[in-house]
Amino acid sequence: MKKKAVVIHSGGMDSSICLALAIEKHGRENVLSLSFFYNQRHTEEVNQAALISKDWKVDHIELPIDCLQEITESALIGKSQAIQHDKGKEANTLVVGRNGLMIRLASIHAHFLGAKEVYTGVIELDGKANGYRDCTREYVDLLEKILRMDFDDDSFEIKTPLVFLTKKETLEVAHQMGLLDYLLQNTITCYEGVKWAGCKKCPSCLLRNQGLKEFKKDHPEFQLPFSLD
């Protein structure tokens, strides 16, 4: 199986937009959707990644990295910790090094498949809001440099098409592609695994729902499939 791009696909809004962008560029037959299991707080999001991949007729695989629970801790691993989010402090939902590990594993597989690109939906806004240091382009650039050395290939790229966007701007991308309604109905961004508007309390829901409110101001004609109230 040869591919041109591998997309790290959690089943959330941002990674699903990246999947759509990769399909648009390379064609669905040349793209692989890759999800990871790491004993995360819920698996509903990964189930949605499989569903979206099936709907879009994209090859999809799931890779276990549940050793993470043995070497670190986070409120996103298992359910032993309550999610806490205090402004100005590092969120306890940080999984140290998770994005870097996922990018590295996805890239090794991409290299094996002959793919020159790996897509990840990291956004610097998340990093600033929650202390997610591995959500910046600076972090990805450093990792990309190492991977190019690993593969002896200076053309290998880690694509982060959303990294400098606000949540509202990512919704604009989905809207322009004609996919926003579908993604709102079929992705899960909530840390508790709640569909639609989510739990409305966790950091991920707060960021996305604020973005939706801002999007609605510019697009009053767009009908949300759920209420934000």
Notes on the structure:
With 229 residues, this protein is an alpha/beta fold. The chain is 44% helix and 10% strand. Helix 2 links the parallel strand 2 (31-37) and strand 3 (59-64). Helix 4 (98-113) runs parallel beside helix 6 (137-151) and helix 7 packs across helix 9 (203-218). It is globular and about 50 Å long. The N and C termini lie far apart (46 Å). The model has no long low-confidence stretch (mean pLDDT 95).
Label this structure with key terms.
9 helices, alpha/beta, 44% helix, single chain, five-stranded parallel β-sheet, 10% strand, 229 residues
Give the averaged pLDDT, no decimals: 95
Strand order of the largest sheet: 3-2-1-4-5
The separation of the N and C termini measures 46 Å
Q: How much of the residues is beta strand, in percent?
A: 5-15%
Largest sheet: 5 strands, parallel
Helix fraction bin: 40-55%
Q: What letter string, H or E per element, gives the SSE order?
A: EHEHEHHEHHEHHH
Net shape: globular
Tally of helical runs: 9
Structural class by sheet pairing and helices: alpha/beta
How many strand segments?
5
Name the poorly predicted regions: none
- What is the radius of gyration? 17 Å
What is the topological layout?
Layout: E1 5-8, H1 13-26, E2 31-37, H2 44-55, E3 59-64, H3 68-71, H4 98-113, E4 117-119, H5 124-130, H6 137-151, E5 157-159, H7 167-176, H8 180-186, H9 203-218
Parallel strand pairs: 1-2, 1-4, 2-3, 4-5
